[in-house]
Structure prediction request, 382 residues.
Amino acid sequence: MFRLLTQRAAARELDDLMNSNTQTMSHSSAPNAAVDPVVEVKDVWKIFGKRADEALAAIKQDNLSKSDVLEQYEAVVGVRDVTFDVYQSEVFCIMGLSGSGKSTLVRHINRLIEPTAGTIKISGQDVGSLNRKQLRELRADRIGMVFQNMALLPHRTVRDNIAFALELRNVDSFTRSQLADKVIDTVSLQGYGDRMPSELSGGMQQRVGLARALAADPEILLMDEPFSALDPLIRRGLQDEFLELSKVMGKTTLFITHDLDEAIRMGSRIAIMKDGVIVQIGTPEEIVTQPADEYVADFVQGISRLKLVFAHTVMLQPDAFVHQGGSLSGSEYWPSSSSEADLDTLIGQAVGCDTPTAITDDGKLVGVVTKDVLLRGIQGES
Prediction:
C-alpha cells in the first residue's frame, strides 16, 4: 500500500525535495469559479480522415451525425465540440464506454493528438502555439502520463525506470537516484528498487508507472484507465491510495475510465462522454441525482445513493415541513446533522427514532429530514 503521507513532516520532506506545492481539494467539492483553471479545453473537435476540414464545415452547417460524416466524407468524428475546465488539485474524471472519445480527448491535453479545431490551454498558455522545443518541455516538466499499459523499460531496474524522465531532463545521476528512492518510498516499493519489471506483480508495475510520472514533479497528471487491468481488490486499494496521495501532493489530475463506480470514487467532478460528445459534467452527487438524459440515467440506475446524496439535496425547508403539517416544536431535541451529511449517516440517525432529523448549519435550523424524505432520497425521487 502507498504510505499515507498525512503527517506534516513527511509531506514537507517530499515537497522540499520535489518542489511541490501541496494543496488539497475535497473529493466531492466543486471548483471555485473565481480561481483560474489549470486546464482549459474550449470548442475542441477531432475528426480523423483526409477530408477532416470539409467534414467539420459540413457538420457545422448541416448538423451531420457521426454516421453521416463517415458515409459522406470517409471521416471519423473522435471528439465533437468539447469544452471544460479543470482546476488546481481537482481529480476530473472523463468517463465513457469504448469508442466514446475519452482517450482521444485526453491526448489533446499534451498535444499527442492535434485538434481539428479548438484550443487547449495549460495555466493560460495555448498548447497549440508551442514550438517543438516548448512542447517537449511541457511534456517533460509539467504533464505526467500514466497508462493502463505501463510500457516499463524491461532492461532497466525499477529505480532506473522511475528516474528515466529525470535522465531525459539531464539531471545528474546522483540526484536522479535520490529522487527515485524518495518516490519509491512514497509508493511503498521499498526494497524493490533494484528489481526488474518482470519480477513485479501487475499492481506493483502500476506503482512504478505512477512513480515514474511523479518523479518529474508534474503540475498535471493524465491517467488513462491506469487500474482497469488489475484484479478488483488490488484496483480498489490503488484507487484509495492514489486519492490519499493526491490530497497530499495536490496534483491536478485528468482520470480516464469506462467504469462509473470508479469515476464516482475518484472524481471531484465527472464528465460523461458519448460518441465524442460530453453529455454531462457534474459532481458525483449531481450526476446521480440529476442525470442530464436517459443515457446518463441508465448509467447511474444501479449506483447506490447512500454515500453520494447529501442532506442539502433531500431535506425539506422548515417552512415547507410546517406547511405539510409538521411541527418544529421541540426540534432542539431532535437528532441533528449538517447539510453535508450523506444518506447513510441520516439513516443511522433515523433508526429507532420517532422524530425527524434537524439539519443545522452554525447552530441554525436550515432543514428537516423525515423518514419519508429519506425513502424518497434512497429511491431517487429527491
